[in-house]
Design brief:
By secondary structure, the protein is of the alpha+beta class. Helices cover 40% and strands 23% of the residues.
């Protein structure tokens, strides 16, 4: 008399492995590009730091009761003000963003701060549309902070 032994056949095991492989192939791209999310979060964090620093410096100047073009001191740093807000040259100090290279990523991308006339940008060097730009205040308008994360 033959005893019945339960279990899986080789074909059944191979089919389970193939199905798991197909599922993994569809799921992997969903989780593989977390670098884009990290770059987006980094740019948005820089934008938040710039907005906060600008508003804090403005509030400090108002609290001190000084004129719109008087410097303020934040955490030991002298911040030059123009029209009641930090200048382009000093928003980097106020937001504690350093000029030049800041972070080296695994894919070789570097974020840096560059100053051009009345704007300063934090950008990713290998990404065209992955940046935050601070435009200095004018006599009639507060500074503008524009975030572009389309290319991150």
């Amino acid at each position: 008399m033959k005893k019945y032994q339960g279990g899986f056949t080789l074909i059944e095991l191979v089919m389970v492995i193939v199905i798991l492989g197909v599922l993994a192939a569809f799921a992997l791209p969903r989780f593989a590009d977390l670098g884009g999310d990290a770059r987006t979060a980094s740019i948005q964090a820089a934008a938040g730091a710039i907005k906060s620093a600008s508003n804090i410096a403005h509030a400090k100047q108002l609290a001190d009761g000084t004129t719109a073009n008087t410097s303020v001191v934040l955490e030991g740093e002298t911040i030059t003000m123009a029209n009641g807000y930090p200048t382009v040259a000093d928003i980097k100090k106020a937001a504690q963003l350093s000029a030049g290279t800041q972070t080296q990523f695994d894919d070789g991308e570097v974020d840096y701060v560059e100053t051009v006339n009345t704007t300063v940008s934090v950008v990713y060097s290998l990404r065209a549309n992955c940046q935050v730009t601070y435009t200095a205040a004018t006599a009639s308008a507060a500074p503008q902070v524009a975030v572009d994360v389309d290319g991150c």
